[in-house]
Amino acid sequence: MPPTFEVQDISFSYEAIPAIRGLTLRIDEGDHVALLGANGSGKSTLLRILDALYFPSAGSVKFKGEALTQKHFQQDEFSLNFRRRVALVFQNPDVQLFNPTVFDEVAYGPLQMQWSKEDVMRRVDETLQFMSISHLRDRPPYRLSGGEKKRVALASVLVLDPEVLLLDEPTATLDPKSQSQVVDLIQQWKGTAKTVVTATHQLEIVEDIADRVLVLEAGAVIAEGTPSEILSNSDLLLRANLIHAHRHSHGGIVHSHPHLHGHSHHEHEH
Amino acid sequence: MTGIHFWLAILYLPVCGSKQSVRHTAATASTPSVGNHLALGQETPVELNQNMHIPDGYLSPSTCATLYLCATAGWYAALKHIKRLLATRAIPLISVFAAFSFVVMMFNVPLPGGTTGHAVGVGVAAIVLGPWGSILAISIAIAIQALFFGDGGITTLGANCFNMAIVGSFAAYAVYRLIAAKSNLNSRQRVLAAAVAGYVAINASALVTAVELGIQPSLFHDASGTPLYAPYPLHVAIPAMMIGHLTFAGLAEAVISAGMVSYLQRADLGLLRGVSGLAQTPAPVVAGALVERSPGRLWWAVAFLMLFTPLGILAAGTAWGEWSSADLTNPHTRQRIGIASGNHAPPSSVPLGIQKFSSLWTAPFPGYAPRFIKSPQLGYLLSAMFGVGVLVLASLLSIMAARKWPVKKLGT
Amino acid sequence: MSQHSFVESTIRGFTRAVSKALQAEHAATQPGLLQHLDPRVRVIGIFSLVISVILCRRLEAIAAIFLIAVAIAVASRVSLKSLAKRVWLVVLGFSGVIALPALFLTPGEPLFTAAALHLSVSVQGLRTAALLVLRVETAATLTTVLVLSTAWTHILKALRSLRLPAEVVTMLAMTHRYVFLLIETANQMFESRQSRAVGILSASEQRKMTARTAGVLLSKSIELSHEVYLAMVSRGFRGEVRLLTDFRLRPRDYVGLTAFVFSSCLAAWMGR
After folding, report:
1. pTM recorded for the entire structure
2. Which of B22, B34, B47 to mutate against chain C (most C CBs within 10 Å)?
3. What ipTM does the predicted assembly reach?
């Protein structure tokens, strides 16, 4: 069976600024992958390339063995089929929530797929219930909290029951409670056929959401491994700007060591 | 003596017409934030936040209908053009831009002399989106104000969109292209061009608005001579409207347009490259390529429409029989009423300045001119057509001039 | 006038817009006459009354529509106090003031003459001023009652069924949605500028600051629109706008519609 995504040596730039340089990766069905990288490492761009919103200037991207090219996306059937199977949740929920109400938001995807009115209504209600946001049904987006917006954004893609979920910083800027709700949701899909690719710079959620970690730096994959392998390699994390040397003093002894945000607790032997 | 009152009124009207609110009290020293005021049911006094929105009730039904038709033609053409220019990107780009325009209309722009004014944002819209995109964005902003916030009229929505969005966008775009010419994208010339474009656009809109208001009393009055809608004739409406706009509102628009272009030159030059440039950021190709085509015949269609707008109003007026009563259309009868009223009116201000305006038009015609040319309605009509026509002609000429030296591959 | 008053009044304007929208949303959930009718009936009904206001040429007929408007307001639980504050006084302060010189400038039979001032109020002048003010008051009352009793998403859906092209409806919806986001953004910018400003800004600095704020807002808006576009494409948007409409007219809606259209026609006929 062909891999879900097979990316070969792709490059991409905004105007003249390169964002992705010669990146290669492979993601199989059911994989839970974390793309770990600092801001500007190319995570978001890579997700958008995987979602066929951007097309690389060099190299190739294949989804289940089929090349993702602009030409293919000009065909309605190919395009709708891909959009239904692959979903991207944007980092900024205000970008994703462009409809007047929560109901319209969740119904947007199914309507583009040209489902029947009854199917749309039924499926939207199911999804709202599943995400426990039925009470927000008629709310406009400007009256939702940050956590509620995230849940609606997730609902708006889950309604199509996609095979692949691409999540861009799903927990950034959320309060701790909403953050753990989102992590729980991603954990639920472990062991199912759903493929989940999460871009994040938050080391503390990596173990919960992924089986495999790709570390990105300057638009290329610089390391790959299990969460524990990657998280224990502080040289690598320093290089990828995910941690920074932390200088402080204990009893008059100034020292510096790598500092992991989130893993706030550390031991000192002196 | 009545002449003095007349001029006083002209000076008085713009003061109350253009909202130069100086409603600041000591109590507002602490800044109210949007968040603090989200409590439901909280009453805040509402001031009409409008420069030249015509509310319901100022224009006759037939004027409204005619202007709706004209605006619809403009919207239709604009929608077609913008879909061709932006393909599938049109909807989000125009929508978010309209939201931006709506918010900018709420900005208080500080003006010399300690007052503030509101800008419409049509200058910047025309520069960044081009005339077609600007028509749509400004129209949508106006419609949102009218339909969802109840500011501005429903029956006059067509008129307001025609005046501000359509006339304003074309005037702004034409002036900007003419003055900016081939200059570098980050030159001072472009800042100047933006200032003049904003200023001219607002005043062109105000002039058209004044003409629409000014033709009401002569076309729509009852048997006793009572104006049924806006009560002031052209020779009051035009100066009253223009004084406020030639000073405050025009200045506010000029300040915002120039200031924003100067900011964009330093921070986001790409936005000054024109609307097709906005569609060239990395993007998926959805059905339909981005093809730029010259507007061509549509320009002429729009020009035709604008020229004949006043004619439509007049024709509709006839249909409604609003000036059919023979003795009332007769200027001499009206003058007799005027004299009888003790309002001993010198020809300069009474009755309704009809003679003044019609003579303006009959003057160039020698004695053998057909009788109908001397009719006061025709005088109004011609002056209205003249006003709008000059605007359109100027726009067309300058756009053509600008196209003769196409602005391509400009600075960086 | 304080140096930052222009910022303050801008911020106050934002606050008003947001509180207005929230007030409308709240009022829309109250049990009232208009709230019980289908949004399409409400929109068509109020629009037809507004049109009859401008068709009427007699003060009495317009006054009758004004009373109808007040009755609708009361039945729809729109408080008269808020109407007076929001509409009646504002219109009087704007159109009333504009109409004032018409008393003297309109030629006609003199009603009252102050010889010393060479001023005379004509019957025609009084009538035209009254017509203008009453017309504007009535129309503004009607639209405000509609706006205050209908959630804007419902007005939007009604417009959808009034044969407005789907693209236009979508643009209206999206504009309205992002107005709130941009108001918030602009508000934050103004507030942070205000708290950072040290000393008194000169007039030209104030202007520069306002234009710069508008410029930043524009850059952000364009960026936002690109992102929104990608989000739409990602969920299957291909240029075709697809909307869901689920309105069903009930018997009471037909009764309401008939009542609205009948009273509009009657008023227009009586006031012709």
Report:
1. 0.78
2. B34
3. 0.89
